[in-house]
Amino acid sequence: MSKFRARILVSLRPSVLDPAGEATKTAANQLGIKGLSKLRIGKSIDIDIDALNEEEAKKQIELLSDRLLANPVIEDWSMELLQVV
Amino acid sequence: MSKFRARILVSLRPSVLDPAGEATKTAANQLGIKGLSKLRIGKSIDIDIDALNEEEAKKQIELLSDRLLANPVIEDWSMELLQVV
Fold first, then answer.
1. Once rounded to an integer, what is the mean pLDDT over residues B78-82?
2. In this structure, are residues A16 and A74 in contact, taking their beta carbons and an 8 Å threshold?
3. What is the pTM assigned to this prediction?
4. What's the pLDDT at A28?
5. SS3 of B72, please?
6. pLDDT for A16-51, tens place per residue?
Protein backbone atom coordinates (compact mmCIF):
# COMPACT_ATOMS: atom_id res chain seq x y z
CA MET A 1 0.00 0.00 0.00
CA SER A 2 1.22 3.49 -0.79
CA LYS A 3 0.00 6.75 0.64
CA PHE A 4 -1.31 9.39 -1.75
CA ARG A 5 -2.27 12.98 -1.15
CA ALA A 6 -4.70 14.73 -3.48
CA ARG A 7 -6.24 18.15 -3.85
CA ILE A 8 -9.48 18.28 -5.81
CA LEU A 9 -10.62 21.66 -7.09
CA VAL A 10 -14.33 21.94 -7.85
CA SER A 11 -15.39 25.04 -9.80
CA LEU A 12 -18.65 26.22 -11.27
CA ARG A 13 -18.79 25.84 -15.05
CA PRO A 14 -18.11 29.20 -16.73
CA SER A 15 -21.71 29.44 -17.95
CA VAL A 16 -23.14 29.07 -14.43
CA LEU A 17 -23.87 32.18 -12.36
CA ASP A 18 -22.01 32.58 -9.06
CA PRO A 19 -24.12 34.80 -6.78
CA ALA A 20 -21.78 34.33 -3.78
CA GLY A 21 -18.82 35.39 -5.92
CA GLU A 22 -20.71 38.42 -7.25
CA ALA A 23 -21.69 39.48 -3.72
CA THR A 24 -18.07 39.15 -2.59
CA LYS A 25 -16.90 41.22 -5.57
CA THR A 26 -19.37 43.97 -4.69
CA ALA A 27 -18.23 43.89 -1.05
CA ALA A 28 -14.59 44.06 -2.21
CA ASN A 29 -15.32 47.19 -4.24
CA GLN A 30 -16.97 48.78 -1.21
CA LEU A 31 -13.89 47.88 0.83
CA GLY A 32 -11.78 49.87 -1.64
CA ILE A 33 -10.18 46.97 -3.51
CA LYS A 34 -9.56 48.21 -7.06
CA GLY A 35 -9.18 46.44 -10.38
CA LEU A 36 -11.04 43.23 -9.57
CA SER A 37 -12.52 41.93 -12.82
CA LYS A 38 -13.34 38.35 -11.87
CA LEU A 39 -14.07 36.53 -8.62
CA ARG A 40 -15.49 32.99 -8.63
CA ILE A 41 -15.81 30.79 -5.59
CA GLY A 42 -15.25 27.05 -5.75
CA LYS A 43 -14.32 24.21 -3.41
CA SER A 44 -10.96 22.73 -2.57
CA ILE A 45 -10.90 19.25 -1.03
CA ASP A 46 -7.75 17.83 0.57
CA ILE A 47 -7.56 14.06 0.70
CA ASP A 48 -5.20 11.40 2.04
CA ILE A 49 -5.81 7.96 0.58
CA ASP A 50 -4.03 4.61 0.74
CA ALA A 51 -3.97 2.62 -2.50
CA LEU A 52 -1.95 -0.11 -4.18
CA ASN A 53 -0.67 2.22 -6.89
CA GLU A 54 -1.23 5.58 -8.57
CA GLU A 55 -3.78 4.18 -11.02
CA GLU A 56 -5.90 2.74 -8.20
CA ALA A 57 -5.71 6.00 -6.22
CA LYS A 58 -6.83 7.97 -9.30
CA LYS A 59 -9.74 5.61 -9.88
CA GLN A 60 -10.99 5.99 -6.30
CA ILE A 61 -10.63 9.78 -6.40
CA GLU A 62 -12.43 10.01 -9.75
CA LEU A 63 -15.34 8.03 -8.31
CA LEU A 64 -15.39 10.23 -5.22
CA SER A 65 -15.28 13.46 -7.25
CA ASP A 66 -17.90 12.43 -9.80
CA ARG A 67 -20.32 11.04 -7.24
CA LEU A 68 -19.86 13.07 -4.07
CA LEU A 69 -17.74 16.20 -4.47
CA ALA A 70 -18.91 17.78 -7.73
CA ASN A 71 -22.33 18.24 -9.26
CA PRO A 72 -21.57 17.40 -12.92
CA VAL A 73 -24.53 19.45 -14.16
CA ILE A 74 -23.03 22.74 -12.99
CA GLU A 75 -19.48 21.98 -11.85
CA ASP A 76 -16.12 20.86 -13.23
CA TRP A 77 -13.35 19.34 -11.15
CA SER A 78 -9.64 18.75 -11.48
CA MET A 79 -7.13 16.94 -9.28
CA GLU A 80 -3.51 17.17 -8.26
CA LEU A 81 -2.18 13.82 -7.03
CA LEU A 82 1.04 13.32 -5.07
CA GLN A 83 2.58 10.17 -3.69
CA VAL A 84 3.84 10.49 -0.11
CA VAL A 85 7.36 9.04 0.11
CA MET B 1 -1.53 48.36 -15.45
CA SER B 2 -0.78 44.65 -15.54
CA LYS B 3 -3.23 41.80 -15.30
CA PHE B 4 -2.80 39.25 -12.52
CA ARG B 5 -4.53 35.96 -11.90
CA ALA B 6 -4.71 34.51 -8.41
CA ARG B 7 -6.05 31.42 -6.74
CA ILE B 8 -6.73 31.73 -3.03
CA LEU B 9 -7.14 28.53 -1.03
CA VAL B 10 -9.02 28.86 2.24
CA SER B 11 -8.84 25.87 4.57
CA LEU B 12 -10.07 25.20 8.07
CA ARG B 13 -7.29 25.27 10.66
CA PRO B 14 -6.23 21.71 11.56
CA SER B 15 -7.70 22.04 15.07
CA VAL B 16 -11.16 22.97 13.74
CA LEU B 17 -13.74 20.24 13.16
CA ASP B 18 -15.05 19.77 9.59
CA PRO B 19 -18.52 18.16 9.83
CA ALA B 20 -19.13 18.43 6.05
CA GLY B 21 -15.83 16.68 5.37
CA GLU B 22 -16.63 13.96 7.92
CA ALA B 23 -20.08 13.40 6.37
CA THR B 24 -18.51 13.15 2.91
CA LYS B 25 -15.92 10.66 4.21
CA THR B 26 -18.69 8.49 5.67
CA ALA B 27 -20.63 8.65 2.39
CA ALA B 28 -17.45 7.73 0.49
CA ASN B 29 -16.99 4.62 2.66
CA GLN B 30 -20.61 3.64 1.98
CA LEU B 31 -19.94 4.12 -1.73
CA GLY B 32 -17.12 1.58 -1.49
CA ILE B 33 -14.17 3.96 -1.66
CA LYS B 34 -11.38 2.34 0.35
CA GLY B 35 -8.36 3.73 2.13
CA LEU B 36 -9.57 7.28 2.71
CA SER B 37 -7.87 8.56 5.87
CA LYS B 38 -8.44 12.30 5.54
CA LEU B 39 -10.98 14.49 3.76
CA ARG B 40 -11.23 18.20 4.54
CA ILE B 41 -13.29 20.67 2.54
CA GLY B 42 -12.12 24.21 1.93
CA LYS B 43 -12.71 27.02 -0.54
CA SER B 44 -10.89 27.91 -3.72
CA ILE B 45 -11.36 31.43 -5.09
CA ASP B 46 -10.24 32.38 -8.60
CA ILE B 47 -9.52 36.05 -9.15
CA ASP B 48 -8.50 38.33 -12.01
CA ILE B 49 -7.17 41.69 -10.88
CA ASP B 50 -5.52 44.67 -12.58
CA ALA B 51 -2.73 46.32 -10.62
CA LEU B 52 0.35 48.48 -11.24
CA ASN B 53 2.74 45.74 -10.17
CA GLU B 54 2.99 42.42 -8.35
CA GLU B 55 3.43 44.06 -4.94
CA GLU B 56 0.25 46.11 -5.37
CA ALA B 57 -1.71 43.04 -6.55
CA LYS B 58 -0.52 41.06 -3.52
CA LYS B 59 -1.54 43.86 -1.17
CA GLN B 60 -5.06 44.00 -2.60
CA ILE B 61 -5.46 40.23 -2.48
CA GLU B 62 -4.18 40.05 1.10
CA LEU B 63 -6.76 42.65 2.14
CA LEU B 64 -9.49 40.75 0.28
CA SER B 65 -8.52 37.41 1.84
CA ASP B 66 -8.13 38.69 5.38
CA ARG B 67 -11.33 40.71 5.36
CA LEU B 68 -13.76 38.89 3.07
CA LEU B 69 -12.66 35.42 2.04
CA ALA B 70 -11.31 33.81 5.20
CA ASN B 71 -12.45 33.86 8.81
CA PRO B 72 -9.10 34.22 10.60
CA VAL B 73 -10.48 32.67 13.79
CA ILE B 74 -10.99 29.27 12.18
CA GLU B 75 -9.39 29.45 8.71
CA ASP B 76 -5.99 29.81 7.07
CA TRP B 77 -5.47 30.97 3.49
CA SER B 78 -2.70 30.83 0.91
CA MET B 79 -2.39 32.33 -2.55
CA GLU B 80 -0.83 31.52 -5.89
CA LEU B 81 -0.27 34.65 -7.98
CA LEU B 82 0.46 34.71 -11.72
CA GLN B 83 1.02 37.63 -14.05
CA VAL B 84 -0.88 37.37 -17.33
CA VAL B 85 1.50 38.17 -20.20
1. 97
2. yes
3. 0.93
4. 97
5. coil
6. 999 999 999 999 999 999 999 999 999 999 999 999
Percent of chain B with pLDDT over 90: 98
Half-sphere exposure for A16 (CA within 13 Å, toward CB): 15
Q: Is A56 within 8 Å of B24 (Cβ atoms)?
A: no
Q: Does domain A2-84 have CATH number 3.40.50.2300?
A: no
CB atoms near residue B41 (< 10 Å) = 20
Q: Are the beta carbons of B60 and A33 separated by less than 8 Å?
A: yes
B57's enclosing H/E stretch is helix B54-64
The nearest alpha carbon in chain B to A9 belongs to B44
Mean pLDDT along residues B31-57: 96
Tell me, letter by letter, the H, E, C secondary structure of chain B.
Answer: CEEEEEEEEEEECCCCCCHHHHHHHHHHHHCCCCCEEEEEEEEEEEEEEEECCHHHHHHHHHHHHHHHHCCCCCEEEEEEEEEEC
Please name which of A6, A47, A72, A22 lies closest in space to residue B45, comparing C-alpha atoms.
A22
With contacts defined as CB-CB under 8 Å, which chain A residues touch B34? 50-51, 60
